[in-house]
Write a structure and sequence with these properties.
The protein is mainly alpha-helical. The chain is 67% helix and 3% strand.
């Protein structure tokens, strides 16, 4: 069972660090487009672990203040690209809140998968394959595997060619970063990663096949599995 108590206990550290970085972005100390210090430097500056820094960066991504580029680092988002949706952070460790979040995910992401099957381009399929390649590569056991997982879901949303799906699914995907960490920490990592990959492959194949019902079914199966791995009891 996912340890939501542990999330609650440690949550204040990434929230505080995210707030400090957010303040520096707001007052111009960190300029739009500027690269943030490395995880190592931030961890040393704040006196925390790199995993805490990663959670803080994930929160800032969720708020649209930061974007990450694999292998390069994190950057303050350009002003014209910043998005205005914000989720309250006080309930990250609340299992009931995660249930509500997953109910929203079911509604949005199953429909997004169906639309993606109808509207996807070859470029969209290539981006899905890129995300899967990262999920199945050497970094699949690390935090980069989680980043690739989230990138896959955003790419499905983008393949709808409806910007609203990309915006909403993107924000919700970032919120699940902490949940994925919890699931990985409470299971046999090799098993949960391989199962998750197989579920994503099924979604990708249904989208490629242009079958909206199959894509919706595959996405629903994946989300049901994700909820089960977090011991969430959903009323659907």
């Amino acid at each position: 069972m996912a340890d939501f108590t542990q999330i609650k206990r440690n949550e204040h550290l990434p929230v505080r660090i995210a707030a400090e970085i957010s303040r520096e972005i707001a007052d111009g100390s960190i300029r739009p487009g500027q690269k943030l210090p490395t995880e190592h430097i931030l961890a040393s500056s704040f006196g925390v672990s790199r995993s805490v820094v990663r959670e803080a960066i994930a929160q800032l991504r969720n708020e649209g203040l930061v974007e990450t580029r694999q292998g390069v680092g994190a950057f303050a988002t350009e002003i014209q690209q910043r998005q205005s949706i914000r989720f309250e952070v006080a309930h990250h460790g609340d299992q009931a809140a995660f249930c509500s979040l997953f109910q929203v995910r079911f509604a949005l992401e199953t429909e997004a998968a169906g639309l993606a099957a109808l509207h996807r381009s070859e470029a969209d399929l290539a981006r899905l394959d890129d995300a899967l390649a990262q999920m199945t590569g050497a970094d699949k056991w690390t935090d980069q595997g989680i980043v690739a997982d989230l990138a896959f879901h955003k790419t499905v949303a983008a393949a709808t060619h409806n910007d609203y799906f990309l915006q909403f699914v993107g924000f919700i995907a970032e919120k699940t970063h902490i949940a994925i960490n919890a699931a990985r920490a409470s299971a046999i990592l090799e098993e949960i990663v391989e199962i998750t990959i197989a579920e994503h492959v099924a979604v990708r194949d249904a989208i490629e096949g242009g079958n909206p019902m199959a894509a919706k079914t595959a996405m629903r199966h994946h989300l049901e599995g994700a909820a089960k791995r977090l011991s969430l009891e959903l009323e659907m």
